[in-house]
């Protein structure tokens, strides 16, 4: 090309790029109200935002990638934990974490119940913002290690049983219908909404927001044989299913797993999973003898 052609090409390319950028900017602003869940911003959400800032929560936590990294990202915490857990946690965080065991300490913010309700409303709004699938997995921060290994709980949740960190967990790869129900259940354990491994470990003795599921089949039979059991299950499989679809039917011993007779386990799986998927998840969990 001669100089004139080169100049025209440069000017034309710049105009095309500028128009494309302007078009994408306009389209982004067009989608913002829907993507940001703006219609759900209630007075409670606004007050909760004020509580978040007044207590400097961002000094330790992150939202949408903004903030500090001393404590877990809370972008999806309302979906991963649920309102009953968050309310009990914010009232008495020392019940759930302590410096001696977890190498960190969540300070008690000393919030009044209305402030807690508003903060949960704010976090629920944040969790429902369409952020294109980010974060890609639950971000767990803890100092506890798995007995007999050098892995942290967070590493264990990434890798899964018998895998290295360089291998993809079942929830990160395509799962075909030709795989066994247990393999499909293992994938669901990491991909259901909320993901089971956001609250449960499968390593012995490692309790997160929920009790470890290592040996859950054996404990299920022990619970069924116990006179204190008041649910309707009559087998290990039906007990595990009951725990998934009706988690408050039997409350796991330990004050950090329930409050006021209600389990912290989400009650949404009966609607978000099909009967076949629940069966697959049950078969996977029933394999932990």
TrEMBL record:
PROSITE patterns (UniProt xref): CYTC
GO molecular function: electron transfer activity; heme binding; metal ion binding
Region (Disordered): 158-177
Record keywords, A-Z: Electron transport, Heme, Iron, Metal-binding, Transport
Keyword Heme assigned: yes
Gene3D superfamilies recorded: Cytochrome c-like domain
Pfam families linked to this entry: Cytochrom_C
Domain called Cytochrome c: residue spans: 43-127, 180-289
Keyword Heme part of the UniProt annotation: yes
Name of the featured protein: Nitric oxide reductase, NorC subunit apoprotein
Organism lineage: Bacteria, Pseudomonadati, Pseudomonadota, Gammaproteobacteria, Pseudomonadales
């Amino acid at each position: 090309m001669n100089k004139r052609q080169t100049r025209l090409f440069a000017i034309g390319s710049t105009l095309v790029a500028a128009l494309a950028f302007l078009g994408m900017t306009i389209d982004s602003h067009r989608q913002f109200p829907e993507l940001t869940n703006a219609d759900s911003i209630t007075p409670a959400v606004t007050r909760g935002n004020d509580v978040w800032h007044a207590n400097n929560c961002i000094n330790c936590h992150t939202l949408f990638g903004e903030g500090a990294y001393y404590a877990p990202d809370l972008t999806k915490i309302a979906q991963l934990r649920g309102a009953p857990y968050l309310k009990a946690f914010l009232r008495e965080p020392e019940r759930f974490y302590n410096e001696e065991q977890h190498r960190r300490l969540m300070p008690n913010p000393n919030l009044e119940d209305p402030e807690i309700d508003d903060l949960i409303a704010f976090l629920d709004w944040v969790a429902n913002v369409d952020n294109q699938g980010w974060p890609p997995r639950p971000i767990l921060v803890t100092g506890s290690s798995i007995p007999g290994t050098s892995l942290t709980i967070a590493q264990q949740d990434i890798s899964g049983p018998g895998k290295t960190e360089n291998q993809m967990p079942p929830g990160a790869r395509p799962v075909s219908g030709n795989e066994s129900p247990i393999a499909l259940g293992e994938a669901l354990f990491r991909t259901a909404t909320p993901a089971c491994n956001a609250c449960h470990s499968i390593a012995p003795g490692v309790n997160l927001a929920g009790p470890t599921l290592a040996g859950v089949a054996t404990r299920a039979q022990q619970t069924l044989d116990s006179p204190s059991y008041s649910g309707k299950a009559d087998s290990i499989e039906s007990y595990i299913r009951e725990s998934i679809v009706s988690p408050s039917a039997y409350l796991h011993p330990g004050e950090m797993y329930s409050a006021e007779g209600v389990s912290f386990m989400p009650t949404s799986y009966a609607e978000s999973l099909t009967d076949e998927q629940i069966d697959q998840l049950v078969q996977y969990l029933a394999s932990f003898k």
